[in-house]
Amino acid sequence: MEAIILQVLNGLDKGSAYALIALGLTLIFGTLGVVNFAHGALFMMGAFVAVTVKRLLGTSYEVVDETRTDFLGNPMTIDTPYVVSWFGESVGNAMVDWAVPLSVLIAIPIMAVIGVAIERGLIKHFYKRPHADQILVTFGLAIVLQEIIKAFYGANPIPTPAPSAFTGSFDIGQLFGFDPFAIMYPYWRLVYFGFSAIIIAAVFAFLQFTTFGMVVRAGMADRETVGLLGIDIDRRFVIVFAIAAVVAGLAGVMYTPILSPNYHMGMDFLVLSFVVVVVGGMGSLGGAVLAGFLLGILQSFASMSAIIELVPGINQVIIYLVAVIVLLTRPRGLLGRKGVMED
């Protein structure tokens, strides 16, 4: 039972990232009809926003400390972050420690601007082009973006730790009545799951309960009719693209303590997220979230040593096997609309 609970938690952790990225992908496909292969790059760029903020807050200068000496008796120099000298020791050190959560606030406007720039500068010219053209141009954009990141930050992963308050593990087993330390789970992974749930709920609430969201949902169902009503649906869709970019970027920001950012992490998540979208149903927001968590849990269980010994390599292909089965039996996906990805 302990192993089952642990694998479910691992699956929810992976599924949170899959669901957030797939949610943005589905939002773009459902509104704009664009297959955006650059969406994984937005996830990567969000992660590197956190890296940049961490570096900027940690920028320091040398200060001579007369109270400390080296082995020769000379005063030692210590590195002092500028934010410590500007805001005081307690506030400055807290800002450096909490760089990743602070990056969320900075990433929102940055990712929104990037999203609008990509949509206005490139995507809008391919609305009426075949999906093959959209895939090629957005995949090329993703390669360009990751090479830019590689040029500025290098090819090696960059560790970006979580705040010290969230280091260590939580004894989650006691919540289920197990012995102490039976099920330990990292604090930050629990934080990431909670953060993902809040973002997903916020997106659905925005689309469901606001006038803007209702217009967007109407546009997803029948774009021409909404346009005939005199509503500038194109302008609203630009905002939707920006929202999707923000969601992907925030997913990347908060994932940095779990997976050290590197220039190809966007591509790693992109393929899996597209599989999630197809399994959930192209254009179905609920299907994307449901499939993200389900496939995350399946992948987690398939990674158990007992399962790998029984079926070697199953953890590498389980998601694709599920996708094949779903497409053979239900081409529209679990919650997809009739006629989408289906004859």
UniProtKB/TrEMBL annotation:
UniProt keyword RNA-binding, yes or no: no
The entry's keywords: Amino-acid transport, Cell membrane, Membrane, Transmembrane, Transmembrane helix, Transport
Membrane topology recorded in Swiss-Prot or TrEMBL: Multi-pass membrane protein
Places the protein is found: Cell membrane
TM regions (residue ranges): 20-51, 98-123, 190-216, 237-258, 270-298, 310-328
GO cellular component: plasma membrane
Domain of life: Bacteria
Entry keyword annotation includes Transmembrane helix: yes
InterPro entries in the cross-refs: ABC_transp_permease, BCAA_transport_permease
Family listed: Belongs to the binding-protein-dependent transport system permease family. LivHM subfamily.
Name of the featured protein: Branched-chain amino acid ABC transporter permease
